[in-house]
Description:
- The chain has helices at 10-23, 36-102, 108-113, 118-198, 338-343; strands at 226-227, 245-248, 254-256, 261-268, 274-280, 284-294, 301-302, 307-311, 322-327, 335-336.
- It is α+β, with helices and mostly antiparallel strands and 349 residues long.
Amino acid sequence: MRSPRxxxxxxxxxxxxxxxxxxxxxxxxxxxxxxxxxxxxQVARLYEEAxxxxxxxxxxRREAEAQRSKALEYEKRLDRQRQKIxxxxxxxxxxxxxxxxxxxxxxxxxxxxxxxxHDELMRGQRAxxxxxxxxxxxxxxxxxxxxxxxxxxAKAQAAWQALEARNAGLAELKKKIEGKLEAARSRLEGQAxxxxxxxxxxGAVRLDQPGGRSSRSWVAPVETYxxxxxxxxxxxxxATRHTGQDFAVPVGxxxxxxxxxxxxxxxxxxxxxxxxVVQHAGGYYTQYAHLAAVAVDQGDRVRPGxxxxxxxxxxNSTGPHLxxxxxxxxxxxxxxxxxxxxxxxxxxx
Length: 349
C-alpha cells in the first residue's frame, strides 16, 4: 500500500506555482484592469470612440438648433397670418358699413328687398355676391395658410423635441466613454512611468491604424492639438534652449509619423522618456518623445499618418504633451525649427 506522505512537498510547490501564475501580468485583460499592449490599444479605441461620440453629439446639437429655429420661425409666421385674418375681419366690417352709407342709410340687402325693378335687384345681388366672395376667399385662403403653418410648426416642434431627447442620450454616452478613457489614460500613464523607472521599454502596441492611406506626403504629428513650448524657447525646464515643438495633447493621443520613413530608434528612459526616432529621405530625422506607448519597432517602415505611438508625460515632462523634433542626425543637438520645416512641406501648424 502506498504511503500518503510519499511527496510531502508536492502540495506547497503546486500552491506556490499557482500563486506565481496568478500574479503574472498578462498582455490582455478586461476593460477595468487592462495592462500591457491591450491597455494601449484600449486607450486608442476609446480615443476614437470619444471622438465619434463628440462628433455625433455636435451634429445632433446643430440639427436640434436648426429645428428649434424653424419652429420659432413658423410661430412668427403664424402670428403674422393671424394678424392678417383679424385685419380681413375688420375690412369686412368696413365693407358692410360702406354699403350701409352708400345705400342712403340702408344696407345693400335691404336695398335689394326694396328694389323697384328686376335689373336693380340683379345688380344688387351681383354686388353683394362679389363682396362676399372676395372677403370669403381671402379669409379662407388665410385660414388654410394658418392651418398649414400650424401643422408645420407642430412637426418642427416634435422634431426638435425628439432631437433634444436623442442629444440627452448622446451626451450621457459621451460622458461614459470619456470617463472610461480618462481612467484608461491614467493606468497607461502609470504603466509608462513604471517602465521608464525600470529602464525597460514595453513592447510595441500594434494599434489598428486609421482606415485609408493619407493622400498627402507630409502631415502633422497629431490631428488636434494646442501648440505649447516652441523651438528655441528658454526656461528653467531645459538645460539650454528648447530643441523642438511641443504639442499639448491628452495622454494616449495617437502620434503619427509626419512622413514616409524608417524607425531607427525606440528607447525608454532619460529626459525624453519613451521616444521614437524616424529617418526620412533627404537626411532628415523626426523624434516623438515623452510617449506613453510605442506602436512600432526599430527597423519598421512607416508611411505618412501612420501611428507610431501614443502621447504621454514620461521623462522630463511637466504634463501630457508630445515633444516633436526635426534633426539632421538621429541624435539630439542637430535640431531644426519644426514649424517652418513642416510648413515648407505643406503642413501649417
